[in-house]
Amino acid sequence: MQGKQPLFSFGVISDVQYADIPDGRSFLGVPRYYRHSMLVLQRAVRKWNNPQKFDFAVNFGDIVDGFCPKEDSLKAVEKVVSEFEKFNGPVYHMIGNHCLYNLPRRNLLPLLKIPTLNGSAYYDFSPTPGYRFVVLDGYDISAIGWPRDHPKTIEALKILQQKNPNSEKNSPAGLVGLERRFLMFNGAIGNEQLKWLDGILQDATKQKEKVVVCCHMPLDPGASSKEALCWNYDEVMEVIHRYSCVKVCIAGHDHKGGHSIDSHGIHHHVLEAALECPPGSDAFGYVDVYHDRLCLLGTDRMASAEMVFSSEGDLK
Ligand SMILES: Nc1ccn([C@@H]2O[C@H](COP(=O)(O)O)[C@@H](O)[C@H]2O)c(=O)n1
Ligand SMILES: O=P(O)(O)OC[C@H](O)CO
């Protein structure tokens, strides 16, 4: 799109998972650089501040790692938030599983300035006429983050009990195909949020807006490992597919990144994790938005992608 000005541009980063602890590895042995991820975030903010004008930034969740000692969680979350606040514009956050390992929702949401009703963390915003962003709360039904006796914890534990026979509910051992997503580090979007999403998409369709859906967990098996998918990605996509206003879904969580185009022509893009950048390397980017495409320009380990779509937004 050389020579053509984008309508607007925004910064993206995911899975910073900062902690002031030595480097480690994921369960499957992938190196994780808990301290260096802060430097990745700092370089991201520096880039977003200079020289091009970025209208806002989106953090796709998991700001502090679950291995952060609990007595340091608040300080670590505040440290990461204060780095984001060095960006000269609004930052839209969403919650990930690691955020919830560190702080309960009631403490986390105000720190991240996430609008909330009864502890929920879904919201929408329109950065410019003609475009709407929907931020989903993928841990709405989850065994992490709500009080132990909360109906949503109980509902999540019931799902895990039915779907995952392992005593370690984060283990996919023995689960086949897409059933491998029923792990404790994932969650689902509850009925109330699904109704809200339907209402937002109905309204966006009336307003002829194009919609970008953001969620910590991926929503399409083509873009993600089965183990990283939202439990009820299929129900969420059934709502989204009632309309033609959603053009792109962006996620984090599956640290290696991914991309797909689903049966309705919607792009699904998964961002590579800042946490897994060896010292000196980076994973952040920015998106230039046009009337018919989103162009993601990734730095270093973050892949770039051009997501072209039809530009009508009528009800199907
Ligand atoms: N194949 C796997 C993957 C993970 N687990 C459990 O999940 C926890 C988190 O995994 P990370 O990828 O974030 O390290 C891990 O500590 C294991 O308990 C598993 O059991 N099997
Ligand atoms: O959120 P984490 O760090 O436990 O990682 C989740 C995995 O990437 C999902 O496959």
TrEMBL record:
InterPro entries: Calcineurin-like_PHP, Metallo-depent_PP-like, MPP_ADPRM. It holds the Pfam family Metallophos. Residues 9-256 form the Calcineurin-like phosphoesterase domain. It catalyses: ADP-D-ribose + H2O = D-ribose 5-phosphate + AMP + 2 H(+); CDP-choline + H2O = phosphocholine + CMP + 2 H(+); CDP-glycerol + H2O = sn-glycerol 3-phosphate + CMP + 2 H(+). GO terms for molecular function: 2',3'-cyclic-nucleotide 2'-phosphodiesterase activity; ADP-ribose diphosphatase activity; CDP-glycerol diphosphatase activity; manganese ion binding. Gene3D superfamilies: 3.60.21.10. The keyword Transcription regulation does not apply. Keywords: Hydrolase, Metal-binding, Zinc. Monomer. This is Manganese-dependent ADP-ribose/CDP-alcohol diphosphatase.
